Structures are given as structure tokens and as C-alpha cells.
Amino acid sequence: MSDQQISDVVSGGVRIIGTLRAEGARGVVRMEDVYDTDAADLWRALTEPRRLERWIADVKGELRRGGEFHIRFTSGWEGQGRVDVCEEGRRLRVTTTEQDTGDETVIEAVLTPEGAKTRLVVEERGLPVSAVANHGAGWQAHVEDLAAHLAGRERCDWHTRWEQLIPSYRDLAVARG
């Protein structure tokens, strides 16, 4: 399958910031956007439990390289995680294991300063290919909530936003195939 590059494309009136692809038999979701904050603030939003809770998940445990944690996303997904890479202000990579199925994925966030703003790329790798559309819509809802948090606004109703996004991500998954 080829990489479908549609970052910032509007599909049916919906701004899509994600791409979907396959790596072998597994799927990858990639989100990329620029945030109106510096890398240090964005890093804290990605790594401080109190801030994570405001936009994406309740996290309990050791958020340092080699540390283990329990996570419950606003989407309802729950599982365990391990911090594999933690390069302050630049790169974070965690391995997560779903509580119910034992499925393992890798989530990586890379921050790149762009003047007073910061580009964030988030990839989740190791997904079932059949699940990439669902995860794409979910990740976009999460990173939109991150933008709201950074702007001092409340997060959206995750499920409602996911329902709005899923038709566009299903179309993207079909186009990818």
C-alpha cells in the first residue's frame, strides 16, 4: 500500500491532518500540525500528568525513560505503557499494551520548533490495518483537543468529534488501499 499524503486537505468540509499507511502487515497513523506555543510548553503538555488529563488521558506511573505507567484515554482505551525514548523537548516514544487484548503499539511524538510555534508529529505504529481509519479519526480528535488545551479552551466531546471525522478517515483508508 502506498502512503496517502493528504495533510491539511479538506474532505467533506472537514480538515484532515492525518495520514494512514501500512508497514508490512501492520498499520500506521500519522498526525502532523503546528501549534501556537514553544517546544518547552508543548513538551510539558505531552509529559505532565495534570496536563495530559486535560486533553487526552489519565496517566499514572513513572513518565521517565524506562518508566512504566497505566493510561486511560478520553476515548475509553485503557492499558499499560513503557517510556522507551525521552529526549526532553524533542522526542518521546512509548510502547502501549491494550488492557483487554494485549495488542501492542508504539506511539512516537517528535517536536520541531518553528519560530515561536512548534510542529508536532505523532505516529502510532503496529495497528491492525483494519483499524487505521478508527485510530486516525481518534488521533485527530485527540490532537485537536491538544490545540484547545494549549489555547486555554475545553476539550471537545471526543466521541462526537470521532463520529464527525470517521467518514473522512474511512475514505482515506479506502484510497490508501
Give descriptors for this structure.
single chain; 177 residues; alpha+beta; Alpha-D-Glucose-1,6-Bisphosphate, Chain A, domain 4; 8-stranded antiparallel sheet; two-stranded antiparallel sheet; globular
Overview of this protein structure:
The protein is α+β, with helices and mostly antiparallel strands. The chain has a single domain (9-176), classed as START domain (Alpha-D-Glucose-1,6-Bisphosphate, Chain A, domain 4), CATH 3.30.530.20. The protein is 31% helix and 42% strand. It is built from four helices and ten strands. The chain has helices at residues 39-47, 49-55, 132-150, 158-176, and strands at 9-11, 14-16, 18-23, 26-35, 57-61, 68-73, 78-87, 91-98, 104-114, 117-128. The strands form two sheets. The chain has an eight-stranded antiparallel β-sheet with strand order 3-4-10-9-8-7-6-5. It has a two-stranded antiparallel sheet with strand order 1-2. Helix 3 crosses helix 4. The chain is globular, with a radius of gyration of 15 Å. The termini are close together. 28% of the residues are buried. Mean pLDDT is 91; it is low at 1-9.
